[in-house]
Design goal:
Two copies of one chain form a homodimer.
Chain A: E1 6-8, H1 17-32, E2 40-43, H2 45-53, H3 60-77, E3 90-96, E4 106-110, H4 114-124, H5 127-144, H6 150-164, H7 174-192, H8 200-214, H9 218-227, E5 235-241, E6 252-259, E7 266-274, H10 278-283, E8 289-290, H11 294-297, H12 299-316, E9 320-327, E10 330-338, H13 343-355, H14 361-367, H15 373-377, E11 380-381, H16 383-387, E12 393-394, E13 396-399, E14 402-408, H17 411-419, E15 424-428, H18 436-441, E16 444-447, H19 455-463, E17 466-469, E18 475-476, E19 482-485, E20 488-491, E21 495-499, E22 504-506, E23 512-513, H20 519-531, E24 535-539, H21 543-551, E25 557-561, H22 569-580, H23 584-608, E26 613-617, H24 631-641, H25 645-655, H26 667-672, H27 674-694, E27 701-706, H28 712-733, E28 740-745, H29 748-752, H30 754-758, E29 763-766, H31 768-776, H32 784-792, H33 809-823, E30 828-831, H34 839-848, E31 852-855, H35 860-874
Parallel strand pairs in A: 14-15, 15-16, 16-17, 24-25, 24-31, 25-26, 26-27, 27-28, 28-29, 29-30, 30-31
Antiparallel strand pairs in A: 1-2, 2-5, 3-4, 3-5, 6-7, 6-9, 7-8, 9-10, 11-23, 12-22, 13-17, 14-21, 18-19, 19-20, 21-22
């Protein structure tokens, strides 16, 4: 059998969504369960894929197949393409596997031409309707197929309305509309050099090709990237007999939801317009009526529709979003799909459907998009105010939520202003560890550079603070007192707003509504936990973060970055003294000053986690990150430490690195200065002893994690230092402390030599941020400059720092896991890269067989839900 | 059977070198072929390994085994440990698998104590000899076993000589020497807190342990690292009955070679001393006599020795290096081994032995250490002058050869001074592409930073210029007019000398002798080529390099780095104009200026390679490398291009990268600016067309190589640009040009997704420099700062940038090769990292099944020889 690229609606069904697209599959389903659907057929997504394989042409064999289906449609509808007697008019609409509202193109009234329109006017007895349909068709076709700009047509219409002295399109007469159609055709010829096509078959192929092409238009590409839809899916094309809502006052068109998409409240929710075609409802020129009003206009149609809605919701067992048209008093269904909804609504609908007995717990768990939970956990913009605001720029959605405040350009100002009661947004070229306090005080953080795992992004997510990163168009003025973005100059103290969930930046204040967690949330998360097997830990550096994460359901800390504790004023001086040390003795002395602080940090962290495991990573960043960069701070540091400015400058110059990411950091610090590992172990174990004494019933389980290991010999060396230090403290304490020593797998070589490393490690934690950087040879801080070109040219479909690259990085993980489990079947395996909070990556980790994923506190619920869905998906639920 | 850790000499043979060490195996062999060897036994290298496994203790079971062998030795020699009647005295000497002369420790005369020495004096009738032996023993034991410094003992001897008014040790009387022994024992007790051990068994275990320990002394570690000897091999220990060359005028000791180790000339070559123990020959206090003089002193012994030498050379079929002792007129052989020799001698001996019918061609090929060829291809220091010079510092042996000249600190000065007829050494913190001209004019290059694959190292090797890189102790003064190293201040214009083969830096002028290639060289390389299957290409950027490499036997260019062509004055301006461009048109216009230059470069390169394949890599470095860094040059650039200084500074600031190694470079440039790939393809193909026209019989085979690919989509994108450009030029020319498009595999992800990439590539070239950096997460420019700690702590045994890491990087290569060959069995595979010239890595590449290795021109002969040896090794030759 030759491949089949076209299906009549009655040949399909809902489960064929991958092939027929969502719209096509649901039209087929509705057709087959007896709904009033105008006849039509669907050209498959595979035809779209083939179109791109064939260098953007529709092959002759597919064209032939389409023509055969047009013939069937003609027979079925008793109409004929190009006929003056009984012309077949069709709509041509895109319909991808995943719903992408408004992203692709639609053409209505296809089949009209100069002749057909005349007889159509006569036959319908409604010339105004006929010419209106024709001018709409020319306009849409020109725009979509030939990419002739819309604005010209709008101008011509406006000119005519002015000339006639009318305000609404509907006030134009049939003659006016006929004249418009003529004018449009002239413009078409002017712009394209060709006559407007009169043969309906030419029109049809032009339209189908346009829909295929629209799959790769910039807004579709952008939408897919934002929503993780692969470019390889392609779109289907639906060709359907036209029904007309614009045939007069007994005709109309509308959209409706089976439940309120904002709140989830049960009940029909929608709007409609009489004597209108689909685009009029959304165009905003005439104000649509609430759906209830239809009852008064045509109560039979209304109750037929209400019954259909009920049936469809029961049939799909989910809230439905539907389009309908009434043609001369007769109802037609043009679309149904599971409706998009807000996070609040999604939660309520899932729980309500369960309570109504329509779905099971498992199905309720599967119904929520984990990413939507963000909106429940972070403040959001007031939707009404958002509607009338336009962003002045956008960057990466680095940390979700919404924030409004006054611009400050330094962390010091952010702190001071916030203490003075202002809401501030901290704007930086990029943030550095020194900015930590200001970041903590800020409502939101905005950076010009840096990617999804830049310092700003990582820290902000940890804090649950809204952050937009890598806004590459943002230019900070030389005096650091204003910035330029989207043609607007924003001065220090001006209000701006950030949407950390979309990456949008607004040059004005937009009020926000606070996050709220309802009882429905806990119910749903409890159901999720029932089916989840993957453990969820959190990346937390402070007791606050830890408590927050535990509230959200974290089962331990998977990554505590100790260096974040080094920047507070009283500690940084000791760190700097350590860096300036020339002998082991000097270094040990400086480190001894830090130990009590670290110990206290760890005590608080253990307390916060009430006995759950706490993974603490030894110092990771290169030492130069702890040194000041501007002359003033250098002078201050020299004074504080009683050394010369030259000495400090010399140290800074010797620590300079060409590629700090690949430099003297992680375990390499412990190899050169074992004193550091020793001090940190002392702090970790001493703290564990204290907490164990206070809570003898808690297990208290520190897991000491050595970063950046690339060779087992590194781990062996540091492990010896850790073990000797830990065991002497434990022995002295007389307690039993169950500590473990493990390593990050974040260097490709570590994954490739995992068998040897596993011999020495109690656990592995995949540090997929660095592992991604090194596997790709891609610096997360520099990639922002060219990643856009990579998306535009379809080299990358997604940011590998946001979604784990399953092909390359994933293969390294598979190698490491298989090899490690061969030598040590019970080795504990987790992930602590930012991917741990990305649903798609969580699913991948589940399939890899990891024991846990660890993510920032505000992503813990997302990971919980994603992990449950992964388990249910695998079990076939 | 329990494991056996000890072998009597007659239980071993030459082939047991891995177990018995070189010395032990050869003592066994000599014993078994009837040579006069004092009896003894060997404690195996496995015992040494076990010693380290057992936390640096000799296990009781091994001690027991040793004692049993001491008993056998006592029976065999009719002497007894600690006996006054007939005391057994032994030497305890190290002997590793590979010869490490002088790196480890030796103890003679072990078995003497206060009592034994008395009766020994009486029994030998030579009290002076007895006390001399005893004081030597105490001295050696103290030094080696208890690590009591030698200097004290030297001082005591000098004081005594002063007191006695004598000059030579031999003028001291028996009584003097006895007194010395007493003083030494007191010092021993002072320093160690213990009496000098009187029990010979205690002495023996102390000595054996000291030898094991000496395997890890710093100089042994350093030697191993320089000579690629794994730490896991361990050393054997030889315990042998003493024979005495210091028993009077009929006794003596000496060393000899069967051929001249400097020239290779056939004939006995050596020296000896009568009435002396081994160390006196080398100590330089008395001047040894040439070996021929022995004929006059004891012609019977001389001719016995000459016969033995002849026998041993025939037996081992190689030049021998022997130690002998004459005890009261009786000859004893104490060692034989294949002699170390200069490169000249090695070549001559291999060819002579073949001509003498002693060895086959294959054996001659196997006889040469490929690394030794360096010395034949580069100037070397005059050995006489070198002997009296001490280095003031050392760094990495980045490019071999020797150089002497006056210090300059800028490339401009180097050029100017060299043009004025001076020999200059260019000293830089690190070099950058802008320095290229000065580097070319310099005799040698010295840098304070950077590793084996830093810019300086790579460029110097390409030019065949001596280079010492990464001398981390070197401090350049702030004014850039002097540097400090090893306590010496070296000013601009001062003479220094560099040994690029060892990394040593001398603070003075040392004369050099030029390289010379003899007929023997060509004969041997021809033999090598007969057995070699791996192709050898070269990394060459200029016609000069290419011709040089072809002379050395290169079979094509494996890597031409096009960016090196961009720095000449007339081109850099166009490049900078390209970088400042804001539109595609501007960029294309700037690139068009560069194309004719590039085209000419490629024409010359094809001409130089007379039709062999030439692999040309598209532009690789980040664009900021082409921009000036100091204000003066920035101003000049702005003037030249007619833009403002601010514009230039702004461009520089936007191009700044945190980790340039992982930044916007390689194929990423072609994705953002396809115009670059287009221009380079035009130049490559246009040049090929011209050369093909001039030489219709040459194949002319450009291979266009896309760098830094990490995803097949990148290659696909650029391939399309290349193909369209190339094919239109070729079509127009009417010629057939056989060009290929391939990629570097230098990013871990490329190796991990090699199957997909192979579908689009005609060839892979493993860029193991970057692949090593990314697999290790280790910047070659920054690693120098901590690699020493890694060597000291035995984390790394070798520099992964010098020797390919077979475990990690090698595994990635294996994955890539297997996957690529699955989808495209005939894909051409090569390597163009610096490892291509490292013999051990060449052997690995041979086993991986690569088609070729590519290395800098001066390493081509090394690679040829190494490849031949790999093939012969595998075939069991």
């Amino acid at each position: 059998m030759a491949e089949k690229y076209v299906y009549l609606f009655y040949e399909g069904k809902a489960s064929m969504k991958n092939l027929l697209g969502g719209k096509g599959a649901n039209l087929a389903e509705m057709t087959n369960i007896g709904m009033p659907v105008p006849p039509g057929f669907t050209i498959t997504t595979e035809a779209c894929t083939k179109y791109y394989e064939d260098d953007e042409t529709i092959s002759d064999s597919i064209k032939l197949e389409i023509l055969q289906y047009i013939r069937r449609l003609e027979l079925k509808s008793n109409k004929q393409f190009g006929s003056n007697e009984n012309p077949l008019l069709v709509s041509v609409r895109s319909g991808a596997r995943a719903s992408m509202p408004g992203m692709m193109d639609t053409i209505l009234n296809l089949g009209l031409n100069d002749e057909v329109v005349e007889s159509f006017a006569i036959k319908t007895g409604n010339p105004r309707f006929a010419y209106d349909s024709y001018r709409r068709f020319i306009q849409m076709y020109s725009d979509v197929v030939m990419e002739v700009g819309k604005s010209y047509f709008e101008k011509v219409i406006d000119e005519m309305k002015d000339a006639r002295g009318v305000e609404l399109d509907t006030e134009l007469t049939a003659e006016d509309l006929k004249e418009l159609a003529e004018k449009f055709k002239v413009e078409y010829k002017d712009k394209t050099g060709e006559d407007f096509p009169q043969d309906p078959i030419d029109q049809l192929f032009g339209a189908i090709e346009a829909v295929f092409r629209s799959w790769e238009n910039p807004r579709a590409q952008y939408y897919r990237r934002m929503n993780d839809i692969p470019s390889s899916w392609g779109t289907a094309v639906n060709v359907q007999s036209m029904v007309f809502g614009n045939m007069g006052d007994t005709s109309g068109t509308g959209v409706a939801f089976s439940r309120n998409p904002s709140t989830g409240e049960k009940g029909l929710f929608g709007e409609f317009l009489m004597n209108a075609q689909g685009e009029d409802v959304v165009a905003g020129i005439r104000t649509p009526e609430p759906i209830e009003v239809l009852k008064d206009i045509n109560s039979a149609v209304y109750s037929q529709f209400a019954t259909i809605v009920e049936t469809l919701e029961q049939h799909y067992r989910d809230m439905q979003d539907m389009e309908f048209t009434i043609e001369e008093g007769k109802l037609f269904m043009l679309q149904t799909r599971n409706g998009k909804r807000t996070a609040d609504a999604a939660l309520r609908i899932a729980v309500d459907l369960y309570d109504e007995g329509m779905i099971s717990e498992k199905e309720a768990v599967m119904m929520l998009d984990p990413k939507q939970l963000d909106a429940l956990l972070h403040p959001q913009f007031d939707p009404k105010q958002l509607k009338i605001s336009t962003p002045i720029g956008n960057g990466l959605p680095a940390s979700p939520g919404a924030a409004t405040g006054q611009v400050t350009f330094t962390a010091e100002d952010a702190t001071a202003w916030a203490k003075a009661g202002k809401n501030v947004i901290l704007v930086r070229l990029e943030t550095s560890p020194e900015d930590i306090e200001g970041m903590n005080y800020a409502e939101g953080i905005l950076t010009a550079r840096g990617g999804m795992t830049s310092h700003a992004a990582v820290v902000a997510r940890g804090m649950g603070t809204c952050c937009v990163a890598g806004v590459s168009d943002l230019k900070i003025a030389e005096d650091g007192k204003s910035f330029q973005l989207g043609g607007q100059t924003v001065n220090e103290g001006d209000f701006i707003s950030l949407n950390g969930s979309t990456g949008e930046v607004y040059g004005e204040s937009i009020s926000t509504v606070p996050a709220k967690i309802t009882g429905d949330f806990s119910r749903l998360m409890d159901w999720a936990d029932k089916y989840r097997t993957l453990q969820i830990r959190t990346n937390a550096d402070t007791p606050n973060d830890a408590v927050q994460a535990r509230t959200f359901g974290a089962q331990g800390i998977g990554l505590c970055r100790t260096e974040h504790m080094f920047f507070e004023a009283d500690r940084i001086s000791a760190i700097r003294q350590m860096i300036l040390s020339e002998t082991v003795e000097q270094r040990t002395e400086a480190l001894a000053k830090i130990e009590p602080y670290q110990r206290k940090d760890f005590e608080e962290l253990y307390e916060a986690m009430i006995g759950m495991p706490v993974t603490i990573r030894l110092l990771d960043p290169p030492l130069h990150e702890f040194l000041p960069t501007n002359p003033e701070d250098i002078k201050l540091m020299a004074e504080n430490l009683g050394v010369s400015v030259e000495d400090v400058e010399y140290t800074i110059s010797t620590l300079h690195e060409f590629n700090p990411m690949l430099g003297h950091r992680g375990v390499r610090l412990d190899i050169t200065y074992p004193e550091i590992a020793k001090m940190q172990t002392q702090a970790i174990i001493n703290a564990a002893v204290t907490v164990k004494k206070n809570h003898p019933d808690w297990p208290v389980r520190p897991e000491i994690m050595v970063p950046l290991v690339g060779d087992v010999a590194e781990l062996k060396f540091v492990k010896k230092v850790i073990k000797e230090t830990a065991e002497s403290i434990i022995e002295e304490s007389g307690l039993e402390i169950d500590y473990q020593i493990g390593t990050m797998i974040e260097i490709p070589r570590a994954a490739l030599t995992a068998a040897a490393i596993a011999e020495e490690a109690d656990f592995f934690s995949f540090g997929t941020n660095d592992l991604t950087q090194m596997t790709y040879g891609l610096s997360r801080d520099d990639a922002g400059k060219f990643l856009d070109a990579y998306y535009d040219k379809k080299i990358y479909e997604a940011d590998p720092f946001a979604h784990l690259d399953q092909t390359g990085v994933g293969r390294l993980m598979e190698i490491a896991i298989a090899d490690a489990r061969t030598v040590k079947p019970a080795i504990k395996l987790g992930i602590c890269g930012e991917h741990g909070g990305d649903p798609r990556s969580v699913e991948f980790c589940y399939h890899l067989g990891l024991d846990y994923v660890s993510c920032s506190p505000y992503r813990v619920p997302i990971a919980r839900l994603a992990a449950a869905q992964a388990a249910l998906n695998e079990a076939g639920n």
